[in-house]
From TrEMBL:
Keyword DNA repair recorded: no
Name of this protein: Acetolactate synthase-1/2/3 large subunit
One Pfam family named in its UniProt record: TPP_enzyme_C
Nucleus found in the keyword field: no
GO cellular component assignments: acetolactate synthase complex
Domain Thiamine pyrophosphate enzyme TPP-binding, chain residue ranges per copy: 382-527
SUPFAM superfamilies membership: DHS-like NAD/FAD-binding domain, Thiamin diphosphate-binding fold (THDP-binding)
Keywords: Thiamine pyrophosphate, Transferase
GO process terms (BP): isoleucine biosynthetic process; L-valine biosynthetic process
Family the entry assigns: Belongs to the TPP enzyme family.
């Protein structure tokens, strides 16, 4: 297309997003955002139409996890913007850089006009790092500020509200770009104290979290763990930051009572805990104050100061987590640790807690999929009982191989996360694991999946119940209420949308369906029928 001369404010905005690496945008257009769509196309950013703005935000997140660029979500005025609140709140809690572009009625018109007039900035302020209203004269500056706010420190979503007339107005001149801050490492007496604590450790554990991924510090963690020989526990979002095939990896923690029954006592018996980019946004109440800095040495490196009070530390450093790991551990010599064999015992206990040999059920589904799908597969998972089980059983050899909502824990995310990941990384095998309730929330995106031709595999755990909530209901000895629904034929639904559909109830049938799915040109949905109560004693 022919560039506008002079550039419009929307063009200045789109160009800055392209400079940040953005190549995709997702959403549902309205008349108020047509200039934005035109500008995105001119900047080389492809727009993908979705069935619902909430799914569009998750698709944008899935793409971000593949290439590291901020996600872009476009929503029109009023109801379109409000449809996006859930996915923006998710990005806020999941530390995802998401640029949200909304159209709005011009301020002058709003003085005498009320239809769909809504203060988007007030709505989104509690769940974003920053909000802006685009102006023509400062479009370039506002776009630059938005990218900086979304990507620096702990990442998160940013809203840019674009008045209709402003989008088309000539843009003011581009100003000088701000130089991004370089990585900061710990220094001084506290660093010396921390290194002495680590050097003296006899029963150490590293707890690794999401900040490491956002700082690109996976290699720093792997080097430190290998050099020191220290075991590593991760949050769910950080799974694979140290390969879970590594003998030092104890896997993910924070949600499964069965896993926590092993890992929490281990942490409480440690003499030294290194919190490496550990962000407790993912953790449950049982992880509040589970270590005691008055009797344990707890050294924390994090991307942001501790204002959450989920835990405290002996020494805390706010810094780049990769630089922090290097400053704390470089030059330390490996020493024998955990002489009592507690780490080997913990690893054995975790393997026994999540066996893979059941004839049929959710663990069998996960085990068969893990065995059938190739190394490097990207898996996504929706919230529910299946997510707890899969997050323990699905071993990740690298970061961002299992995508989920573990901060906000919203349902309906697995399918759009998988679609966004596949669009950004078409060479990868991508599988979405969802419960039947989660799929029903966003079943319209099966149409989007068919229209894009993406060969994504969708595995649905079909038990006609909100299984995790039903389990909690029984555990509290409450009457069954509001958790059950019909057992639908999801395979037929998939075929109706143009995909391949399979309904399975055995390992052999699942293996056959997976083999077919890997050669199918379009998407495949595999509905795995399991019994109600199948998660009892397993999560």
């Amino acid at each position: 297309m022919t560039p506008h001369d002079p550039p419009r404010a929307a063009d200045a905005l789109a160009q800055r997003l392209a400079e940040a690496g953005c190549r995709r945008a997702f959403g549902m257009p309205g008349g108020e955002v047509l200039t934005i769509l035109d500008a995105l196309k001119g900047a080389g950013i492809a727009f993908h139409l979705v069935a619902h703005e909430n799914a569009g935000g998750f698709m944008a997140e899935g793409g971000h996890h593949m290439d590291g660029a901020p996600g872009v979500l476009v929503a029109t005025v009023g109801p379109g913007a409000l449809n996006a609140v859930n996915t923006v709140a998710n990005a806020w809690q999941e530390r995802v850089p998401l640029i949200v572009l909304t159209g709005c009625v011009d301020a002058e018109a709003a003085e005498t006009y009320t239809h769909q007039v809504l203060d988007h900035r007030a709505v989104f302020a509690p769940v974003t790092k920053a909000t802006f209203t685009l102006s023509a004269d400062e479009a370039d500056t506002i776009a630059d500020k938005a990218v900086a706010a979304a990507t620096e420190g702990r990442p998160g979503p940013v809203l840019i509200d674009v008045p209709i007339a402003v989008a088309d107005a000539p843009a003011g001149p581009a100003r000088r770009r701000r130089v991004p801050a370089g990585p900061v490492a710990p220094a001084g007496p506290d660093l010396d104290r921390a290194r002495a604590m680590l050097d003296a450790a006899e029963r150490p554990v590293i707890v690794a979290g999401l900040d490491l991924l956002n700082d690109g510090a996976a290699d720093d963690l792997a080097r430190a763990a290998a050099r020191l020989g220290w075991p590593v526990v991760t949050s769910y979002k950080a799974k694979g930051v140290l390969s879970e095939h590594n003998a030092l990896s104890l896997g993910g923690a924070g949600l499964s009572p069965r896993a926590d029954k092993v890992l929490v006592p281990l942490l409480q018996s440690a003499d030294t805990i290194l919190l490496a980019g550990y962000d407790p946004i993912e953790m449950r109440p049982g992880w509040r104050e589970i270590w005691d800095p008055s009797r344990q040495n707890v050294v924390e490196i994090a991307a942001a100061p501790n204002h959450h009070y989920m835990h405290q530390a002996t020494l805390s450093f706010t810094c780049d987590t990769g630089a922090g790991l290097r400053a704390l551990t470089d030059g330390l010599a490996a020493k024998p640790v955990w002489a009592d064999g507690a780490i080997e015992d913990a690893r054995t206990a975790l393997d026994r807690a999540f066996p893979e040999d059941e004839d049929w059920g959710p663990a069998a589904v996960i085990a068969e999929c893990r065995a059938a799908l190739p190394p490097g597969t990207i898996a996504t998972v929706d919230s529910g009982a299946h997510r707890i089980l899969l997050s323990q059983m699905w071993r990740c050899e690298a970061p961002r191989r299992l995508l989920q909502s573990s901060g906000l824990c919203t349902m309906g995310c697995a399918l759009p996360l998988a679609m966004g990941a596949k669009i950004a990384a078409p060479e990868r095998t991508v599988v979405a694991f969802t419960g039947d309730g989660g799929l029903l929330m966003g079943a319209g995106e099966l149409a989007t999946l068919a229209e894009t031709g993406l060969p994504v595999i969708v595995v649905v755990f079909v038990d006609a119940s909100l299984a995790l909530i039903e389990l909690k209901q029984r555990q509290r000895q409450l009457a069954n209420s509001g958790v059950d629904f019909a057992r639908h034929d999801f395979a037929a639904v998939a075929r109706a949308f143009g995909g391949a559909g399979h309904r399975v109830g055995s390992r052999a049938a699942l293996r056959a369906a997976l083999a077919e799915a890997r050669t199918h040109d379009g998407f495949t949905l595999i509905a795995a029928d399991i019994e109600r109560g199948a998660y009892d004693g397993r999560i």
